[in-house]
């Protein structure tokens, strides 16, 4: 999974914020508050996101309604996983990431790792 382009990211942010199925027209309305876009541009982006497996769609009348297939956090985790997979030294990359965490984030990560270690294998 590659990093999202600027417009793809804006569409996904809108879909995640809505918490329900959304039409191209509704997405266009939300996005054009910040910039001028054509309906066909937004439709193409949403179709591309569907082709990439990032959104599901269902037909309602003549239009499709789109919903994200994962949460924002799940998507972020997948992107991080993909980036780490590209690293020559995954452990070193993780250590650099951990080194950039603030104390609270590090404590949460440590708690999550402790919980994970206690799970049966």
From TrEMBL:
<keyword id="KW-0804">Transcription</keyword>
<keyword id="KW-0238">DNA-binding</keyword>
<dbReference type="GO" id="GO:0003677">
    <property type="term" value="F:DNA binding"/>
</dbReference>
<protein>
    <submittedName>
        <fullName>Unannotated protein</fullName>
    </submittedName>
</protein>
<dbReference type="InterPro" id="IPR005650">
    <property type="entry name" value="BlaI_family"/>
</dbReference>
<dbReference type="InterPro" id="IPR036390">
    <property type="entry name" value="WH_DNA-bd_sf"/>
</dbReference>
<comment type="similarity">
    <text>Belongs to the BlaI transcriptional regulatory family.</text>
</comment>
<dbReference type="GO" id="GO:0045892">
    <property type="term" value="P:negative regulation of DNA-templated transcription"/>
</dbReference>
<dbReference type="InterPro" id="IPR036388">
    <property type="entry name" value="WH-like_DNA-bd_sf"/>
</dbReference>
<keyword id="KW-0805">Transcription regulation</keyword>
<dbReference type="Pfam" id="PF03965">
    <property type="entry name" value="Penicillinase_R"/>
</dbReference>
